[in-house]
Fold:
Amino acid sequence: MGLFNVFNKDEKSRNRSYIKNLLDVASSDGHLDESERNLIISIAAKFDITKDEVQEILTNPNSIKFTPPSSYSAKVKLLEDLVKIMIADKKIDENEVRICKNLAVEFNIAPIIVDELIQANIK
Structure:
């Protein structure tokens, strides 16, 4: 396997992990709302991940290894997308907020950023 293929595989794994995180938050309240699903599919398309691949990730979440974003800005972008998913159904569930804050801590980012992102994205 060439070096280019290794980088592509790593990027694909990171992107699938990103989408899995979105699905985890969206379904943490026990229900994957259609608005959440549609937003995830839209975000996935930016990563060249198809609707069928999103469904595959949803069906087999344990097949996706968590791969954290590599840069600070990518970590904040993931948190921002997670918050957008969280508020897509117009209901902010305690479990969703907890998952986002735990992830922020894992990224060495103050969890208050989640509250700030929620406030910035509520319309």
